[in-house]
Design a protein that fits this description.
3 helices, alpha+beta
């Protein structure tokens, strides 16, 4: 595998003696990040969805699922817009720090 094609979380570390000559951190791609987030949300949500719909009933359960879908799409679009403004941010922490850096001191 080529050094530039390393997978998520790998470190290209060439060691000469006891000192590292170069360390390159490789982030994950947008597709991998989307997959991880979807797997996390779906994994927890699927386990609880059956019980929640059973308690609410078919009609209210279906309406709740549609409302939560709309909220999820809205938040995703907001995060994408912020990412377009700060493309150098590679994590949620960096995205939040970059967006709040322009806010006044009492908001931070």
């Amino acid at each position: 595998m080529d050094a530039m094609q390393n997978s998520y979380g790998t470190i290209d570390n060439k060691v000469e003696g006891s000192k590292a000559s170069s360390i390159k951190l490789h982030g994950n791609s947008a597709m991998l990040t989307a997959g991880i987030i979807i797997a996390d949300v779906v994994g927890a949500g699927v386990l609880a969805m059956g019980d929640a719909v059973a308690k609410l009933g078919w009609l209210l359960g279906a309406v709740s699922i549609l409302v939560l879908l709309a909220m999820n799409v809205h938040i995703t679009m907001l995060m994408w817009r912020v990412h377009l403004i700060y493309p150098e941010a590679e994590s949620y922490l960096e995205l939040a720090s970059a967006s709040l850096s322009r806010a006044s001191a009492n908001v931070r």
